[in-house]
Input
Amino acid sequence: MWTLAPSSDLPIWRATPEPHGVRLAFSTRRGGVSAPPFETLNLGRSSGDRLELVEANRERLLRSLDLDPRRLATAGQVHGTTVTRVANAGLAPECDALVTTTSGLALAVTAADCLPILYHAPGAVAAAHSGWRGTAAGMPEAALAAVCAAAGVPTARVTAHFGPCIRGCCYEVGDEVAARFPAAALRRVDGRWRLDLPTAARARLLEAGLVPESLHDTGACTSCEPHWYYSYRRDHGRTGRLWGVVARVDESTGGATAS
Output
């Protein structure tokens, strides 16, 4: 379902085939203009990178998706479970997920180890940022419920997608964090817990009624592949940010860029 074209000038994860009327993508760190340690497609305004470079990277990515950079909505991301419904561009503070029914409005969440989740249903899309705190507190199913409410559909009509994030191969956590997750999402390596966020999020979504065949995963680990991804843990906090981005698009033209 998800493919990455590594030789592209701007290599990003794309859904193949892309669902009708929806634009979906997960970014990598390649194809932008930022200098080290943010090389090159840093999309995070709070990362410490030069803002003009971040804005150039954002515009480059959105235009590659035939989306209008002026019609971008982002979330404040506070590691909670609040979902905000938006109809206009801009920053929605104090939330970790966005949902919209507005065509041509791009929704983006940033991550550098946390799990970005994209959702779509007939008439609505959503983007969620789900780290360990958000996943344990119910962010995956909160965003699912918001999509269902916005679209007026049951969970069986929703599709969800997991982007690059830190995974069980690399994500060491302490006992207090491990205690908040099911055994299926954990394993012991050299006396330490390893947490797999996608496994935990998948379990929550399926319990909430998502159809297993409607859940897709890039399978990429941010910590394992420094050439492709930023990782807050691996890079000790001095790093860029990735995006998960989703939009409803004009089904008659296949695009969402304003004239």
Observations:
- The chain has one domain: 9-165+215-248.
- The CA atoms of residues 32 and 57 lie 5 Å apart.
- The chain has a mean pLDDT of 95.
